[in-house]
Specification:
CATH superfamily of the largest domain: Transposase Inhibitor Protein From Tn5, Chain A, domain 1
Strand content: 15-25%
Helix content: 25-40%
CATH topology of the largest domain: Transposase Inhibitor Protein From Tn5, Chain A, domain 1
Number of helices: 15
Radius of gyration: 25 Å
CATH architecture of the largest domain: Alpha-Beta Complex
Low-confidence stretches: none
Distance between the termini: 43 Å
Shape: elongated
Structural class: alpha+beta
């Protein structure tokens, strides 16, 4: 029936949600016994009998994120949705200020303890083989006055206050393995060894076959630590003057294709007790204008050398130099994960005045991301890495209401007939514990 030019607007008392697809997430949380696990974590308890259960606050926070929230005020999306409230079994729903108060109860020690409990529970139940660990840092620009938000390295907005967190990702499963918030004036290499130790504790008995990192991890202590753990590594090297000199005087390049050349040297930096293998890549500025890398400032007066952009990687692997470079290029995918965390999971927008409260909230946002990654792989089983925004219109943004005509709990979903069989398949898959699913690239 075509819409007439004149129409009326009327109201209904029926409780309807726009997020009926969240039933799939609730079913998956049930299958992995999320509530039972979360009750074992050392979460801060409410100060009175009128307070909200910590597990419910975490669930509310994550569901809000899954429904598109990237500010604490947006958490009202769950508080005002009676259908979602009933779906997740919350007897009373916390407002966003109660969620903020909950995170303000965290300090440094509790953050580290709770996050280790969360990651160990999550990864212990997943079948992940020999894995590749990518570590990186990012800059989060802040407005206002927050602890730790200071002026530091901020190429996007120089002079603005920022935080400078560290993140670790499992490349094969596209999941977060660790997150540390750091002040904005922190150097890239600050606390990196402690961060790696924490990350390995999070992974428990999982085997790290390869670590890839940026130049912030170009540190003798880090490489000694990895060698002691029998973890192979490819780490971007800082182009110090001695290394630049060694690259120019010692490296013999092989032409891979026009404008791309690769070579290697044995290099021992000052303070190192042994030489290490360094793979050197250079790309012609003339033939590859967008090529990454840096020009060698030590040879600023040499026009031939200035016609190239250089990159160097220290590695413990014995593979051919070209394969080392190609392996390291795969680390660029973690930049996509960081962009996704900022766009869809509030990495750059969930912040509070207290530093450890902000880290606690972002730690739970990482959990929301990992659970969504689990959903994509174990329930959706798609070869495409759908962003959360895509999953909204594909799966989650489904009108729904509770059917009051039956004694059973029946959630009616507004799904067209041609999509119902597919949706029923997702429902069946969400009910299966994904612990035995072998996780690799999506």
């Amino acid at each position: 029936m075509s819409l007439q030019s004149d129409f009326e607007v009327r109201f209904t008392d029926r409780e309807i949600t726009a997020w009926g697809g969240m039933a799939l997430m609730q079913k998956m949380l049930q299958s992995i016994r999320f509530s039972d696990a979360a009750k074992q974590w050392d979460l801060p308890q409410p100060g009175s009998n009128r307070g909200y259960e910590p597990v419910q606050i975490i669930e509310q926070f994550m569901v809000s994120i899954w429904c598109g929230a990237n500010r604490f005020a947006h958490a009202e999306i769950t508080r005002l949705d009676a259908t979602l409230t009933r779906l997740f079994g919350w007897s009373k729903v916390a407002g966003h200020k109660a969620i903020i108060r909950f995170f303000n109860r965290f300090d440094m020690a509790r953050n580290e303890e709770v996050q280790e409990q969360i990651y160990r529970w999550f990864f212990d139940r997943l079948s992940i083989g020999r894995l590749t660990l990518d570590v990186d840092s990012t800059v989060i620009t802040r407005c206002g006055q927050q602890q730790g938000a200071t002026k530091g390295y901020n190429p996007g907005k120089p002079g603005r206050n920022s935080h400078h967190p560290l993140l670790a990702f499992i490349a094969e499963s596209r999941m977060v393995a660790n997150f540390w918030l750091r002040p904005g004036n922190t150097s890239s290499s600050n606390n990196i060894l402690e961060f790696l130790q924490s990350t390995l504790r999070h992974l428990g008995n999982k085997t790290v076959g390869l670590l890839r990192a940026d130049s912030g991890f170009f540190d003798d202590a880090v490489m000694k630590f990895l060698h002691g753990k029998s973890i192979a590594y490819i780490i971007s090297a800082r182009l110090t003057q001695p290394l630049q000199q060694a690259m120019v005087s010692q490296c013999k390049f092989w032409i891979i294709e026009p404008g791309l050349e690769i070579g290697e040297i044995s290099y021992q930096a000052q303070g190192w007790k042994e030489a290490r293998r360094v793979v050197v890549v250079r790309q012609s500025i003339k033939e590859r204008a967008q090529a990454p890398g840096k020009t060698l400032r030590l040879f600023a007066d040499d026009p031939e050398i200035q016609g190239w952009r250089y990159g160097a990687m220290v590695t413990s692997l014995e593979l051919p130099a070209l394969q080392i470079w190609r392996l390291y290029r795969g680390r660029a995918d973690c930049e996509n994960r960081i962009k996704e965390l900022k766009a869809d999971f509030g990495l750059d927008s969930f912040n509070m005045a207290q530093f450890w409260a902000t880290e606690a909230a972002l730690g739970m946002a990482m959990l929301a991301y990992n659970l969504m990654s689990l959903f994509r792989q174990a329930v959706m089983k798609s070869g495409i890495h759908h962003t959360l925004a895509t999953l909204h219109h594909k799966v989650f943004a489904v009108g729904a209401f509770w059917d009051g005509s039956t004694d059973k709990n029946v959630l009616r979903l507004a799904v067209t007939r041609r999509r119902r069989q597919w949706f029923e398949g997702l429902w069946a898959q969400a009910a299966i514990d994904p612990g035995l699913h072998r996780f690799g690239h999506e």
